[in-house]
Design a protein that fits this description.
alpha/beta; 8-stranded parallel beta barrel; TIM Barrel; binds flavin-adenine dinucleotide; about 300 residues; 11 helices; single chain
Length: about 300
């Protein structure tokens, strides 16, 4: 199923994101997770493309496994890192051959320690350029990345938000945000973007909060804001993992409720290749009527 077709008919979607596992054991865990989360009937699932272009063979393996072995709609992440346009076109041929119809097109992050993104000669410099290349191919629906607080390299959030609009101009049918913890940050971006482009569909990315120390580490480099309310709730529980997890999940559920009540067109959960926290959040949101039931139920 192409996501542009799905979005045209469905105002709200539920989706999950996985990353390529590095070991065979982690691969089996991911297979189990995919099996368990399939039961929740997500509208689509996505698989990241290793930072710095690493693990790209694994991305292809997982995305093709999902496409061939499960009823799920799959979206492959694709970056500009380390690939010429011809190499990207060759990968698109493979994806199309495997029945993949959706691409999340990104610039990508450079390999750790390389000091910044350098475009590959003969490759793409920005995500919007990669989108133009994939859009010209014509076989894929396109999605882009969005940053409510602004991308860390941007001078300010408005200059970054303007570049987000280029992604819609280049053919994106939606954007997914980096993890959101403050609903107002998301809502300001959504309102600003809809004022420029009423059809700009921006889906908030949700990281289930199970380990506050890990969340703080992650936010220190991606630039997502941690609200004071979350720190006040979870900082005192740092040495009580069970209580911290329970409070973190409740925080995440409450955040999703506020986002959906304010009109977010669904949620995209960074499932981190585990099923339990994601399942708890989705079940609670369905019980409270904030998320629609899966089509089959
Ligand atoms: C939902 C989501 C999924 C992700 N998945 C992956 C993944 O699978 N693999 C991975 O490696 N990374 C992933 N990332 C991280 C992403 O690759 C990085 O954040 C990267 O630094 C920026 O990617 P982008 O696609 O937003 O780039 P771009 O949109 O190209 O933006 C990069 C920077 O350039 C600026 N810019 C954009 N266009 C222009 C222009 N025309 N002129 C001047 N400046 C411009 C932007 O403001 C920004 O500061 C993901 C991020 C999100 C939000």
């Amino acid at each position: 199923m192409r996501l542009d077709h799905l979005f045209a008919r469905q105002p709200q979607t539920l989706s999950f994101e996985f990353f390529p596992p590095k070991t065979d054991r982690a691969w089996h865990t991911l297979e189990d997770t995919i099996d368990q989360l399939s039961g929740l009937g997500p509208d689509f699932v996505s698989v990241t493309y290793g930072a710095g272009g690493s693990t790209r063979a694994r991305t292809r393996e997982i995305i093709e496994h999902i496409q061939a072995q499960t009823p799920l709609t799959a979206m492959a992440h694709l970056t500009c890192v380390g690939a010429t346009k011809d190499e990207i076109r060759a990968l698109l041929d493979e994806y199309a051959g495997a029945g993949i119809a959706n691409i999340l097109a990104l610039r990508g992050d450079p390999p750790r320690g390389s000091g910044g993104f350098t475009p590959t000669p003969g490759g793409c410099r920005y995500a919007s350029e990669l989108m133009e290349l994939v859009a010209a191919d014509g076989r894929f629906a396109l999605v882009g990345a969005a940053y409510p607080e602004g991308h860390p390299e941007a001078a300010d959030r408005f200059s970054d938000w303007k570049h987000l609009l280029h992604k819609f101009d280049a053919g994106a049918c939606a954007a997914i945000t980096q993890c959101v913890f403050v609903e107002d940050e998301y809502l300001e971006l959504q309102r600003w973007a809809s004022a420029q482009r009423p059809d700009a569909r921006i889906i908030p990315g949700i990281l289930p909060v199970t380990d506050f120390a890990a969340v703080k580490r992650f936010c220190s480099f991606c630039g997502a804001k941690i609200p004071d309310s979350m720190s006040a709730l979870l900082e005192p529980l740092l040495d009580q993992p069970v209580a911290m997890r329970a409070a973190g999940i409740q925080f995440t559920i409450a955040l999703c409720r506020r986002l959906l009540e304010a009109g977010a067109p669904g949620i995209h959960i960074y499932a981190l290749n585990r099923s339990t926290a994601t399942a708890e959040i989705v079940t609670s949101l369905r019980d409270s009527g904030h998320l629609s039931q899966p089509c089959s139920s």
